[in-house]
Amino acid sequence: MARLLMWVMLIHFIKRSWQQDCKDFIERKSFDCGFSYDGSQPSLRCESMIPSDGPVDENFYFLQIYWKEEITNLHDNQSLFQTYLNSPFSSTSMFYKCESIWRNFIDSDPSVLSLHCLKRRNCLQHVSGLISKWRVKKVEIYNAKSSNIFKIINEFHFLQEIDLHDNLLLNLSDLNYGNINQARILSLRNNNLDDVPDGIFSKLIFLETLDLSHNRIELLTNHSLGNLFNLKTLNLSLNSISEISRNHFSGQPNLRFVYFINNNLQSIKEDTFVNNILLTSIDLSYNPLKILPGGLLHNLKNLELFACSSCNISEIPDGLFIDSLKLKTADFSYNSIENVSLKTFEKQALLEYINLQYNKLTALPDLRNKTYLIALHFYHNELLSLNTNLTIEAPSLKYLNVSENKIEHLSDNHVKNYRDLEDFDLSKNRITTVQLGITNNIVNIRNLILSHNFVRKFDIQWRTLRVLENLYMDFNEITHLELPPCIPSVKQTVTFTFQHNKISTLKMNSLLEDEKRIITDRMMAGCLFNGLSKNFVDISHNPLNCDCKLYPFYNYLKEKRRIKLDTFFNQANITCSEPPRLKNASLISLPEDAFSCSFSTDCPPPCTCGIRGKDNQTFVNCSETGLREIPQNAPVETTVLYFNKNYLEDINSLNNPCWEKLTEVHLDDNGLVDIPENWNIPENLQYLSVRSNKLKDLPEYLKNFIANRSDFELLFGGNDKNCSCSSKDLKRFLKENKDFVIDIDDIVCKIESNGTQSLLPLYTIPNSVLCAIPVILGFDPTVTVLSLSAGFIFLIMILLVYYKQKQLIMSFIYIYCDEIFPCCFNESDDDDDKEFDAFVAYSSCERDIVMEILHELEEKEPHFQLCIHERNWLPGRFISDNIVDSVQNSKRTIVILSNNFISSPWFRLELRAAIFQVSGDRKNKLIVIMADKSTTLDDIDTEIRHVISKRTYLVWGERWFWEKLRYVMPRKSCFESTEFDKIDNVDPMRRNSDIALIDTV
């Protein structure tokens, strides 16, 4: 009871201590708070302030309060904020103690609070008395469903930021601006406001930012904004204001940023900003101005950004920026400007960004003294050419976009002045010629975009593009392409895309030469990156002519084991357009001999002639022409004949001298019955295909010709399948020359068995089957021979398995077929008079093993009687006498062989007695059990080791251990027990080392 009382007191003390701690630091710390109201969910967020002087606190405190519901019933003099503080907080409210390093991360990642801050929820009860309205510096109200909530603003006299947005019930006149005159930021965006009462903001003398965007304001009077001397940012975008003048901004002399985007301004007076000389940014975009007064920006010496995008203007006055020497950004995009004079940006040395896209420019001025210029956008104009000195004095230029113009030519002169251009976009022009690097000048462009042009002549010296990363040439009219070779000085990977052109031929000379040089020339080491190519090329969707000239490229794609400087991606869409027979075929899937160049000289009709790409051999192709005999004329150097799928019955016509140089003959699907003896085989013939004919055999002279060749390819499959004894010669030829017979497995014979047919390769069928007598009275010799063969093989397999796994099989029968075993296997009665079934010789270190063996063999069926020295020896007798007596009175001797036992002085005596007992006996009288696989026989006498090595060992704990042990124990059976699985082919390393001599099953 006393202990419980102590715990209660301790908990109470800790709780009081925490409460006092919360009260102390809440009173001691200064908090900045913000009140937020979203629809019907009020909340308060407070954060401890950073001390202005003194040491920086390593911790800061964060308070987040949510109220359960909105307060609706409120008396006139009652404080709404205090009522909230006195109301119950929701369960999600929390007080946090955080390390100062996390202060700036809370807004971007609220999970910081739960992951890195300490929760102190018990501190919330002190908040209502210590967090006052004086600490609230920010109010945000949006989606308000009642106008009453806006009254809370009047309670906070030190507000710095007021954000009232997306409210339909806001009335500006309801706000007591005298109470909030400390505000620096006032946002009233998207509140459906249609006017700004005169002088309504005049009491906000410290106001710096005023946001009235996304409303319906149509008119500003001269007094709408009042005298807001500290105002720096004014946002009136997305309203319907049609006019502004100098009087509108005369009371805001410190204005820096004016945003007047998307109003209804149709004109603007020249002196509008005459009183605002500190302006740095003006955005008048999306107004139907049509004309900009030339003096609009005079005296604005601090102006850095001017934007008038989509203002419907047709020109930029020459003197518009005459005083704006600090100008960095000029945006006149989406207008109708036709000309920009030299004087427009003449004095703007700090200019960084010019946007004139979507205009009607036909020419550009040279941009002088533009050291800091980074980006030029002239997209979608009517430029006819590029100035050669456009950016001669703009060394920092990174982005140049002149896409969608009418430029017709690109050469070295246009790019010579670029020092490190990141992106050069020339897409969607009318460029027909590209010549780069011709003058050996380095082209310093990283991403060159020339897609969607009309480029026909494409001449680039690749090695001058040292910084190139991407070249886009898609959708042009290139017909011939030299594949990009190595650029050793390039350290990065380079991507070249030529999709959707008219490329029919590819040249690879430079590429292949570089690949040869890279092996021997150290200067070429930069061509690869970690042994892989740095060039990635896409030539998909082009009308390639897949003739003999394209074969090197095909071979380049197919080869795997070689150094490659170019990697081609999107290969599935690299297809052929010519010749017609290959139209739309995937290049990579074609066979090698598909690539050829046709010619008609001396070509016999209706055949076609040409040169093969893979070996430059001349061929005549008469396939599928309906011919019944081979033509008697051919081009002089013809070495290949294709005569497939015709009606050729004999090949005597091949004896014509025009075919004497043949190295390949293709005669598939012709109905050939035989090959005549008088065919003069071309002496250089290396390939003969006679597939799918009616041939039964090959003439002897042809077989001899093939057999005497060092290299030959024969295809004979699909011919006559009705084999007989006469097929033995063909079978012998096939087996002796199987390296030359490409389709040897397709040369098959029909084999009938019990009314069913099967096809077997001829070279695998025994001669006895080929020469079998016909089927008589239902007797099928083929089936009989095959059945006998299968039965013989099965019997051999059974005997082999029995020989290899005899012990395991017998052990299994012995243990699990207990009724069968005694009837089949009898043990001799010679040992029936012996007292023990087995004597166990072991070292005391292996006593645990012996005890487990005793338990297993003596207590479980079948029961055995074992003899061990510590239980069965008579005290007082000599140990040697006990050993000899135990061995002689036991049917078996079990030796637990271990390194400890081998080192024992009694080991040799016990083992010699057992060896004497089993000498000349082929029964399993001696059973050796290895205690573990680490036991070694190296320290045993040679004589004993020789005897042990002739026995097969058991290993303690191996698979099937108990089955094997029971099997070799004494048991009466019908036959003399054979020796315990002696393994003749035991690895000598296993017999004479510490490895177990019986494999696990």
UniProtKB/TrEMBL annotation:
Provide the transmembrane region boundaries.
Answer: 783-803
Q: Give the membrane topology.
A: Single-pass type I membrane protein
Q: Which SMART domains match?
A: LRR_BAC (SM00364), LRR_TYP (SM00369), LRRCT (SM00082), LRRNT (SM00013), TIR (SM00255)
GO:BP terms for this protein?
signal transduction
Subcellular locations according to the entry: Membrane
Stored InterPro entries: Cys-rich_flank_reg_C, Leu-rich_rpt, Leu-rich_rpt_typical-subtyp, LRR_dom_sf, LRRNT, TIR_dom, Toll_tir_struct_dom_sf
Gene Ontology molecular function, alphabetical: signaling receptor activity
Keyword field: Glycoprotein, Leucine-rich repeat, Membrane, Receptor, Repeat, Signal, Transmembrane, Transmembrane helix
Residues covered by the TIR domain: 834-969
What is a single cellular component term in the Gene Ontology annotation?
plasma membrane
Where does the protein principally reside? Answer: membrane
Gene3D superfamilies according to UniProt: Ribonuclease Inhibitor (3.80.10.10), Toll/interleukin-1 receptor homology (TIR) domain (3.40.50.10140)
UniProt signal peptide: 1-19
| Family label | Belongs to the Toll-like receptor family.
| Stored PANTHER family | PROTEIN TOLL-RELATED, TOLL-LIKE RECEPTOR
Name of the molecule in the record: Protein toll
